[in-house]
Write a structure and sequence with these properties.
By secondary structure, the protein is α/β, with parallel strands linked by helices. The chain has 19 helices and nine strands. It has a five-stranded parallel sheet, sandwiched between helices. A four-stranded parallel sheet has the order 1-2-3-4. Helix 1 packs across helix 3 and helix 4 runs parallel beside helix 9.
C-alpha cells in the first residue's frame, strides 16, 4: 500500500539539480584537496556529487525527518531504493550483500585486473565465474575507516546542505555517508602495467552496495559502462543517466548511444513454441516513486501520463480486440491501468518469457526494454506516446520514432482512429516490415 507522504516539494528537478551542481562546483577545490591522494578521485567525486544530489532530493520530497530515517538504515545508501521503501513499502535494498573473504581478496587481487559487475555480458561459464569472483573480491576490500576524515567531510556537507539548523542531523549523516567517501586507499597486489578494468552497469556503483569500493584501489580503475535496460540515449535530460555516463570511461549502448553493440540481454529464440494464434499483448509501465521525477524526469512524465493508456484502450475497444495486459509483478504493478485491463497475462517477472510467436505487442511508451526483444525476435509491435514525450527525445531516438511513425508502427496519443485502423490491418493481414526499417535496425541495433 502506498504510504502518505506529507512533505510537499516546491523545488523543480532542474532547479535542484542546478543548485547541487553549483554548490559542488563552488567547493570543488576543497574536495580536490581532500581526495588529493586518491588515484581514482575523479570517479569518487562523481559519486559523491550524485549521492549528495540524492540526499537533497530525499530532503526535498520527504522532509528532514525521513532523511534521518534514510541515513539510519544501514542496508540502504541508494536514494532510489529508499524511495521504494518510503512510498510503497517495497524492499529492494542491496547494500553490502554477499560473501566476504580477506583470503580471497589477497589471493585474487594479486593477478586479476579485469572485474565485472551486473550488466556485463555473460556468454560462457568463465564469464559467470569471473562475475562471482569479482563480486567477492570487491566486497572483501579491506576498509580502513578514518574517523577524522569522516568528521571533516560531514562538516563540509552539512554546510553545503544548510542542515546545521536540523540540530542532530550530523549524527545521522555520520551513519548514512557511504564509507567510500572517507576510507583510506587500499593496496592492491596487482602491480603490472595493465590498468584495472571494471565492466558492467555503473548503476552498481551508484547503489552503494559495496561495488563502489573498487575505486579505493591504489591503481587506476578504467570503467567500461554497459547499457542494461531500455531508455538509454532516448532523452536529452535524465540526471541519473548523466552521472552513469560520467562514471564510464567508455559506455556501450544498444543502439542510441555514441558507441553501440548488439544488446546481449535478449537473445534470439532458436525456436518458438507451436502457438501461432495471434494475441494482442499490451505491455504496461511500472509503478514509479516520485523520486524518479528528479532522476529520470522525462521518462517519469510519460509514466504518469494517462492519455496514451486511454487512447490505446479506446482503439482496442473500437476494434473489439480481446487483449491481454502484461503487468509488472508484485508491488511494481501500476495502478494506472485499473480501469483499462481486460485480462492479465501470466508472468514470472521476465516479460519475454510470456510472449509467443504470433503475438502483437503494444507499448504505451517508447523506452521499454522489451522493444529490443521484439526487434530481435521479429514481433510485430506498435508504440503510442505523447507529443510532449517525443519533444524531449534525443536526435537518434526521434529519428527512430519518426521512421516507425512513417510506416504505421508508432503513433501519437491523439490518433485513436489511426491506431484502431492499424490494429484492424494487423489483425486481418500481418504487415511486412518495410525494407527501410529492417536496414535501420540492422545498422543501428545490429539485427541480422
Amino acid at each position: 500500500m502506498k504510504k502518505n507522504v506529507h512533505h510537499v516539494s516546491i523545488i523543480t528537478p532542474s532547479s535542484l539539480y542546478r543548485l547541487n551542481k553549483s554548490e559542488f562546483s563552488k567547493n570543488y577545490k576543497w574536495f580536490n584537496s581532500y581526495y588529493k591522494d586518491c588515484i581514482n578521485k575523479e570517479k569518487i567525486l562523481i559519486l559523491l556529487e550524485y549521492w549528495l544530489y540524492g540526499l537533497r532530493v530525499i530532503i526535498e520530497l520527504y522532509g528532514i525527518e525521513n532523511a534521518k530515517k534514510y541515513c539510519s538504515d544501514n542496508k540502504v545508501f541508494c536514494p532510489i531504493q529508499f524511495s521504494w521503501m518510503e512510498e510503497y513499502n517495497v524492499d529492494i535494498r542491496s547494500a553490502d550483500s554477499g560473501i566476504k573473504s580477506r583470503l580471497i581478496y589477497e589471493l585474487f587481487s594479486t593477478f586479476i585486473n579485469r572485474y565485472t559487475t551486473a550488466g556485463a555480458p555473460i556468454y560462457s561459464i568463465l564469464d559467470k565465474i569471473r562475475s562471482r569472483i569479482s563480486k567477492i573480491v570487491i566486497l572483501s576490500v579491506p576498509m580502513v575507516v578514518v574517523e577524522s576524515k569522516r568528521s571533516t567531510l560531514v562538516g563540509k556537507l552539512l554546510d553545503m546542505l544548510n542542515c546545521n539548523r536540523a540540530g542532530d542531523f550530523e549524527r545521522y549523516l555520520n551513519n548514512g555517508l557511504p564509507a567510500l567517501f572517507y576510507a583510506d586507499q587500499v593496496n592492491v597486489k596487482f602491480k603490472r602495467n595493465d590498468e584495472i578494468v571494471l565492466e558492467g552497469a555503473m548503476t552498481s556503483l551508484m547503489e552503494f552496495n559495496g561495488s563502489e569500493n573498487i575505486l579505493l584501489f591504489d591503481q587506476r580503475v578504467q570503467t567500461l559502462g554497459r547499457q542494461h535496460g531500455g531508455g538509454y540515449g532516448s532523452y536529452h535530460d535524465e540526471y541519473a543517466e548523466r552521472y552513469e555516463l560520467k562514471l564510464s570511461d567508455n559506455f556501450i549502448g544498444w543502439g542510441l548511444a555514441k558507441n553501440n553493440e548488439r544488446q546481449h540481454r535478449y537473445p534470439k529464440r532458436r525456436s518458438y513454441d507451436n502457438f501461432k494464434l495471434q494475441r494482442f499483448i499490451w505491455v504496461e509501465r511500472s509503478k514509479m516513486p516520485r523520486l524518479y521525477q528528479y532522476m529520470h524526469q522525462a521518462y517519469y512524465s510519460q509514466v504518469k501520463n494517462l492519455s496514451a493508456i486511454s487512447c490505446i484502450y479506446r482503439a482496442l475497444v473500437q476494434e473489439k480486440i480481446e487483449y491481454l495486459n502484461l503487468s509488472y509483478v508484485g508491488k511494481g504493478k501500476s495502478d494506472l491501468y485499473e480501469n483499462y485491463r481486460m485480462s492479465l497475462l501470466s508472468s514470472t517477472g521476465f516479460g519475454e518469457f510470456s510472449l509467443r510467436g504470433g503475438d502483437v505487442v503494444i507499448f504505451d511508451s517508447f523506452v521499454s526494454s522489451l522493444m529490443y526483444y521484439c526487434i530481435v525476435n521479429r514481433h510485430t509491435f506498435i508504440c503510442v506516446t505523447s507529443h510532449e514525450d517525443v519533444s524531449l527525445f534525443t536526435k537518434s531516438n526521434r529519428l527512430w520514432f519518426d521512421m516507425l511513425y512513417k510506416y504505421g508502427f508508432a503513433f501519437y496519443d491523439n490518433e485513436k482512429d489511426s491506431i484502431a485502423n492499424r490494429i484492424k490491418i494487423i489483425k486481418t493481414d500481418k504487415p511486412k516490415v518495410p525494407k527501410e526499417i529492417i536496414e535501420y535496425h540492422h545498422n543501428n541495433f545490429f539485427i541480422s
